[in-house]
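Supplementary Methods, section 5.1.

A reviewer requested that the exact input to the structure prediction be made available. We therefore reproduce it here, unchanged from the version used in the analyses.
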Amino acid sequence: MEENRPIKDSQPEVSKDKEDNKNKKLIIVIIIVILIALLMVASVCWYMNSQAIQQKSAQEKEINVRTATPQKPISYTTEYEKLKFNYPKDFKLTDTSTPAEGESLPRDLILLVAPNGTEITIGTGLFGIGGSCPGECKILQSDKITVLGKTRYINFYNVEGKVYVGLSDSPDEFMNFIDGKNITQSGQPALMNFNLNLAGAKSVQDYLNNPVFVQYKSLLTSLSY
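The structure derived from this sequence is encoded token-by-token as follows.
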């Protein structure tokens, strides 16, 4: 006679495995959600910190601009005309002045070159300047300015498609010269010129857009004996 043995029920074990798997998946999902949340918080913190750094940097730059001490210009006196002027510290100055020789007057010849290549030339001891303008000449604009205690004019003039700038006693004069003081011939003062040269300039606006134009005007107003 066979012994009746109870049949083992496997259903509870299967259910338990399913429950364990379900719990594991839930834990994984929770972990993923937490990681995503942490990543989002870290991203927000990084963004806010980055914005704060940029804002601080901008404020520091603004403070530096406000508190920066302007560069003191350099003072220079020409050898023969004894004319004084100030020019920016970052300009390069070359003096190729020549003494009197024979019937030639002594001449000051100063070249100032700005960091961007724009040139300012100063010449004294000029005499017998005259003649007509080569080719087609036209005054494009004339700006009034006080130089050496007198009203003068910064003339923008066109010569054969190129624009030049110089200082004159007249708003209609393309030959830009003014009287000197200490260099004379037969009792008459020699002439001086103060020219601004921007290579390739084809319009007045090319000069007005150039920061050296403002420095050129400052140099002119600084002229003194």
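The longest helix spans residues 11-67. These observations are discussed further in the main text.
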